[in-house]
Every structure is written in C-alpha cells, then in structure tokens.
Amino acid sequence: MRLVVISMTIATIVTLIGTPLLIKLLARHGYSQAIRVSTEGELYPDHESKRGTPSMGGVAIILGVVVGYFLTHLLTWRPVTPSAMLVLYLTLGLGLVGVADDYLKIFKQRSTGLRARTKLIGQAVIALSFAWLSLQFVNDGGAPASMAISFVRDTAIVLPLGLFLLWIWFLITATTNGVNLTDGLDGLAIGASIMTFLAYVIITVWQYGQNCAFSDSVSSTCYSTVSPLDLAIVAAALAGASFGFLWWNTAPARIFMGDTGSLALGGGIAGLAILSRTELLLPLLAGLFLITSLSVIGQVGSFKLTGRRIFRMAPLHHHFEMLGWPEIQIVVRFWIIHGLCIGAGIVLFYAEWVRS
Predict the structure, then answer these.
(1) Is pTM beyond 0.70 here?
(2) pLDDT at residue 27, as a whole number
(3) Has residue 112 got a pLDDT over 70?
C-alpha cells in the first residue's frame, strides 16, 4: 500500500501545481476550444459562459500519471514491469490521438475536431498494437494479457488470435469513446474516472495479496494477473492525476481536459480492465460511460428508424440540461449513479472470491 500511496500523492501534487501553470500558458496565447452554438433545427445547451476557457488540460493529467509512476519506482528503486508499461503506452498513445483532435478544435476552431473515421483509425492503430504487445513479454506468470475472455478472472472461452485482436480493439474503442462522450459538463467525466481508477486500485491490490505467484499450488481462489501491484501503482497514479485536475475542472471549470484527457483516461481504464483480467466487469466499473454511450446509440438509432428522438439531446447529460436542470445537479447525480455501478462491480468481484 505504501507504493500506491506514494504514486497517488505524487500524481496529485503534479496536477494540482501543473494545471494552473498550463492554464496560464494556454490563456496567454488564447488557446481555447470552439463552443457549439444552436442553429436552426439543431439546438444546443447554452454554454456561452464557457467561451474562452482553455482546453487540452489532458496534458497535465498525462504528465501527472507519468511522473507519479516513474518517480515512485525511482524513489523505491523498483524495476518497471511490462504490464504497467502497456497501460501507460495505451494511455499516452490515445492521448496523442486526442492531441490531434484538440489541435483542430483550438487552432482551427473546428468544434467537431477530427473526422470520426480519422479518429477511429488512430484509436485502432493504438488498440491493435497494444493487443499484440500484451501477448509478448512472457515470463513465469505468463503474458500480461490472456486470450481468454475474462470476468473476475479468465473464463474457459479462449479466443483465436484474430478474434482476440478484435475483442481488445472493441473494448478500448468503446471505453475511450464512452469517456469522451461523457466529457460534456464541468467535472463529470474526470470525477467518474477517479472512482473507476480507485476501484481498480482496490481490485489489483487484492489480486496482489491473493496472487498465484505467491502460492505453492494454483488454486481456484488465487489470481493469475501478471504484476498486479504495478498495475495498482499505475491505477493510483491515474486516480491521483485525475483528482488533482478535478480541482481546476469542477464547475465553473477553469480548463477543459479535451480529447487529450478523455481518450487517455479511457485508454487507462480499458488497459487496467484487460490486464487485470476483469473485462466483463467493465460495464459496471465504467457504468456511467456505458449509459452515456447507450443514450447516443439509442438516440441515433431511433431517429434513423422512426424519425423521432428519444431524448431532447444526446448524450444523456445534455438532455437534462435542456430540461433546465442546473449543471452541478446533473454532475453530482450522475456521480452517484456511477458510484452505485462501481459498488455493484466491487461486490461481484468480492462475492466471486468468497464463493470460490
């Protein structure tokens, strides 16, 4: 636990101090995201008060994660592990896709950023390379990832390589886009991400204490997760960096994390789910992101099939904005919903161990 606390503390301090410096730098050059406005036949919530708010704050989050993880290992003189490096690779790689998107929003004032196809291609390149790399670096505990579909631990369903690559691509793309869609109100996505990363800290610390590597014989209760303690250190760095950023991103936000932050955080969540062997637990641990994504899918599907919309606006949080709910009320209530989903996920994780 000492290593987890050190990592989280360092990452929090870096973003608490680094974010206002980034705000000053971006504001000095007028680097702010274009704000969508209502047009004839297409209404948007009134976000005029947010105009001029700097974006690309995800840079501070990524910096906090990297410094938190590596400085913890330097201070304790511990070697890094392939599992943790893979999570960082996914986080940084998707963060770079977000940088390209934010560049268009900020410098070209194109509110929609990258074209959807271009963004998906970028995500696919990072996701598929991560999937392939996760099967390398085999040691006594095996490869960081498993080709078996996992719930709380690996199931008996083992995928061939082609399907495995597609499965990992789907998990990463769905998670990153879910976080990206949720990032529409001050503090909403970053607050939910903190809860998810803390859940993974709990899960990976528990897996470390009950790991098969420490057992003389493999039993049904031990976990085959490779390097769970280092995964906990990464999860703690992600949670700490997100927490420090929330201080400046809560309503009224002084900075937006942009796609740089949302795609990076989504990558971190997906990477932890895959390497901790809890893939099918992800719908609960990322509950709010799933609900938000489903609201967009439902809205688009309903309009194409029937010509009618289910919500006044999608994603779901904008529907409640259009109903007149105050922004902070929506954020807090959505946090509560996300917390309940995570609580259910943790209960299922522990219940499976007790039953075993």
Answers:
(1) yes
(2) 80
(3) no
Q: Give the contacts of 243 (CB within 8 A, at least 6 positions apart).
A: 8, 12, 15, 194
Q: Are the C-beta atoms of 65 and 92 separated by less than 8 Å? A: no
pLDDT digits (tens, 9 = 90+) for 60-95: 999 999 999 999 999 999 999 999 999 999 999 999
Mapping DSSP onto H, E and C, the string for 143-202 reads: CCCCCEEECCCEEEEECCHHHHHHHHHHHHHHHHHHHHHHCCCCCHHHHHHHHHHHHHHH
Q: Which one, of 234, 181, 195, 242, lies nearest residue 58 by Cα?
A: 242
Q: According to DSSP H, which parts of the chain are helical? A: 2-28, 58-76, 82-107, 116-133, 161-182, 188-209, 228-249, 258-275, 282-285, 287-306, 316-322, 327-355
Does 90 reside within a domain? yes
Specify if 249 maps to a domain.
yes
Residue 293 lies in a domain: no
Assess contact for 193 and 272: CB atoms under 8 A: no
Q: Is 54 helix (H, G, I), strand (E, B) or coil?
A: strand
Alpha carbon distance 345, 332 (integer Å): 20
Asked whether residue 136 is domain-assigned, the answer is yes
pLDDT value for 31: 65
